[in-house]
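pasting for ref
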Amino acid sequence: MPKEQSFIDDLSSINLMYLMYAKELAKTHPTEAIWVLGLSADEVENISQLTPNYMNQLAKCGRTIMRIKIPDITNSVVGMGELTILMGMVENEEQQTA
């Protein structure tokens, strides 16, 4: 197998694993998905509704699907504004599932 094809296959596998993880997290813990994946609420909603066929198509696009965001370790503490927003989202999520 040529190196280029091996790279494309590896990239497709990584993309598919990421999409499966992102979908599961988006479905079970949407608030956590926003925080962990660095996505918007709309993006998390869209990911939670992806079909397996569409995830396979996306995975084979030839580009990375995931975003690499290196956290700023000097500012790793969550501020009160962000914490308030996250807690409100968690409360809304819990009320909707009850």
